[in-house]
Fold:
Amino acid sequence: MKLTIKSRFSNYDIFIKNSLLDSVEDYVDINQKYVIISDDNIPNYIIEKFTKKIDVMHIIRFPSGEKSKCLDEYSRIINFMIKNYIKKDIIILAIGGGVTGDLAGFVAATLYRGVPYIQVPTSLLSQIDSSVGGKVAINSEDAKNSIGCFYPPKMVLIDPETLKTLPQREFNNGMAEMIKYSLIASKTLFEFLRNDNVYNNLETLIYESLKIKKHFVEADEFDNGIRQILNFGHTFGHAYEVFYEYKKYLHGEAIALGMLKTINPDLKRELVSLLKKYNLPIEDSAKSKDLLEFIKRDKKAKTKSFNLIKVDEIGSASIKELDLETYEKELLR
Ligand SMILES: NC(=O)c1ccc[n+]([C@@H]2O[C@H](COP(=O)([O-])OP(=O)(O)OC[C@H]3O[C@@H](n4cnc5c(N)ncnc54)[C@H](O)[C@@H]3O)[C@@H](O)[C@H]2O)c1
Structure:
């Protein structure tokens, strides 16, 4: 399966196929030189799919986890590459989850003012979300994704077979984002997730999820308008993450709780039963009022008005631009 994303930088293809990585030579240029960037938890069998077939000059590993999306790790990787005479004609392979994609993508965007990179996402969340759309970033000490830019990959290679080694909790984490796609854009996907077996249909489900992401990214590449619909559940979700200092919930788990906070009350029961199916959290003891403090701190930095993403019926979402008072009322409802 193939999708092409139109970008103002340059268009790029996404290939999705079971066992795709067994024939990487059919997708990447075997006459090129490559550097692999990957976290130290990504199994070697995935890395070897490339090292056996193409010319990999260096494999740069970094400690797995969100804490590596930082200036120190970024600086260590960039300096290593420059000291080892890596030149502009290199292609970076970002092999791993969203942390790897964001960090390696930001390295690619800034090394010599930009070298090409290929996303090889290996977690469900990165296969359906972070590897597509061109957002790359690292975190500052206080704010997530605060140092970054738009820099689309040259290509995205998705092999759902890699998910066989992904821990179950991480898989479910990705399912939260897939549920989000269904709520904002596809009743058919919602019904499928409710009634069918996802494990037997991953190629199709990844494709359908990315088709939705493609729609929003192409309509609003730089995230000034309609792309914000992709943030459904993220306002409260992000507040949960910060409230618990990123220790209690994975990103998708926090988004699951965030979606429950803002969904139309008539749809809540249906969402709860779907979240339960994928072992995602459905309640938390944090008070909305306390979470709101984090939301206001986060949002105030950006804008005077506040955008609330609403799902009024399954498969359809809208953005409401509200003043602070109405926004607070809506969130505390
Ligand atoms: N750029 C974007 O548009 C965008 C969108 C959404 C999320 N993100 C970012 O993505 C990050 C989260 O991504 P994530 O959930 O993939 O986290 P992650 O990259 O930390 O991966 C989760 C864990 O799974 C392991 N793993 C990945 N693939 C594996 C495999 N096939 N087998 C065994 N283990 C595997 C990783 O080593 C890691 O320990 C966050 O930093 C978030 O900000 C970015």
Remarks:
- Residues 2-165 form a domain with the Rossmann fold fold (CATH 3.40.50.1970).
